[in-house]
């Protein structure tokens, strides 16, 4: 059900049924109303709100908790993380259906010259994609992350990670 609502919300945000100008990045009038209802007055505020959310996720390494993955990732993305996990550990006989390759949020390095893990910047790219630059234990890197938005029944915006490159 959450995925269906998220897809509907994404459709609203991406303007599937709307011909909005670039100033709203394709967000329909109905979604703008929903965002305003939860205190988000502009697309820029939406991007800033997501950036604050994901900065906390990355800096505090919340993505390492499988509970985070279950709660904040779409089924499609959970499957991708699970398959990557199984591919990494297939020689060890791992058959974990609920294990996830959370290291994909980081660089390819196991260790580094420092303990710093932090977001340097997050830039919206459109269509729900963001590019994030990070410092992973002294190694600089970047990834692209796709996000679905949903305004829940309690009047709060929720973010669901749908892909990562």
Could you explain the architecture of this structure?
With 165 residues, this protein is of the alpha+beta class. Helices cover 37% and strands 24% of the residues. It is built from 5 helices and 4 strands, in the order H-H-H-H-H-E-E-E-E. It has helices at 2-14, 29-37, 43-59, 66-72, 75-89; strands at 117-126, 129-136, 139-151, 157-164. It has a 4-stranded antiparallel sheet, with helices on both faces. It is globular and about 50 Å long.
In short, what is this structure?
The chain is α+β, with helices and mostly antiparallel strands. Helix content is 37%, strand content 24%. The protein is globular.
Ordered list of secondary-structure elements with their pairings:
Layout: H1 2-14, H2 29-37, H3 43-59, H4 66-72, H5 75-89, E1 117-126, E2 129-136, E3 139-151, E4 157-164
Antiparallel strand pairs: 1-2, 2-3, 3-4
Which key terms come to mind for this protein?
5 helices, disordered N terminus, four-stranded antiparallel sheet, 4 strands, alpha+beta, 165 residues
Largest sheet: 4 strands, antiparallel
Radius of gyration: 17 Å
Structural class: alpha+beta
Overall geometry comes to: globular
The average pLDDT score comes to 81
Strand content range: 15-25%
